[in-house]
């Protein structure tokens, strides 16, 4: 399970007692979750008005930062392409896996100084993650363009003989070049019609050079045949070939153009390889930054919500619970029994589908204790 429940409950005589009580209820007898203390430092409280406003702002910031974290993770998977199974080992926070980072969470004093007001800290995070989001858009756009152009060229060099580039297939010797009267055409012939082609090609138009056809290349379905004829019979030949279900490719041998195509492909391929390493490094660093910022927002939300609910002086214990999948419902019931005295209106668990006038609950579940979910499963696919 990569889902965590970040909760808080008011300190009893001491915060340790609050912790012991929760541990006794969830692990001593029934082992329904793995628990960790979640350390939140002494932040500046500010006024009640500021806290109420901040509560809404942090909810929006939480959603935004989570979306950026997921975007960076997903883009990492897209960039790694065939090595997607390696994506998880690249999604680290401060050099450790996400579960370790969350369960051993320590506030980063250097990045988010606690002498600053809560509003300032949330603005620092907002600016930082907005910057990551903007940089991601720019970098992804440049890399995707490069990748798209390369894929288009690769597609031109693969696929059916009717559409693919012929630059790698034909050679100079296959053509009559620089002749005022003669021209070599290339026809795509279904494999089942080879005999028909051999019988018919000399008579599809006047002035076809006898025995001038050669099979140059085959794929699964068709063959590419050359045929030489007089230029003035070309239109007539193409028309008759089409009637016989042979397709004459619109192709002129041009060494310069073919060389330019090959060089372009080499250039794009080299550019992509060159950009790959720095891009993956950037994604790793900025995934870590965004994820760390996200968990700090969760800490801020727990702090603000706990002060708003449990009052001053600040006295609450933040706890991180990792429920086992089959015991989620049971854990919810145990927590409800343990904390229902905190808020009688929430003793029946309010479902996210219920709307209560005056309470903004339509977007989240409401419990008698402060609760936020952290889901570390950030990718749309299973690796």
Written overview of the protein:
There is one protein chain. With 383 residues, the chain is of the alpha+beta class. 47% of the residues lie in helices and 14% in strands. The chain contains nine helices and eight strands. It has helices spanning 15-28, 48-80, 87-90, 98-103, 118-156, 194-200, 234-243, 255-310, 328-339; strands spanning 3-10, 33-37, 182-190, 214-218, 222-230, 247-249, 316-323, 370-375. Helix 2 (48-80) packs antiparallel against helix 8. The longest helix has 56 residues, at 255-310. The radius of gyration is 34 Å and the shape is elongated. Residues 347-363 have low confidence and may be disordered.
Helical stretch tally:
9
Structural class of the helix and strand makeup?
A: alpha+beta
Whole-number mean pLDDT: 91
> Tell me about the biggest sheet?
4 strands, antiparallel
**Sequence stretches where pLDDT stays below 50 over 5 or more residues:** 347-363
Helicity level: 40-55%
**Oligomer, anyone?**
single chain
- Span between termini: 14 Å
Number of strands: 8
The H/E string reads EHEHHHHEHEEHEHEHE
As a whole number of angstroms, the C-alpha radius of gyration is: 34 Å
Instruction: Give the amount of beta strand, in percent.
Output: 5-15%
Spatial order of strands in the largest sheet: 2-7-1-8
Shape: elongated
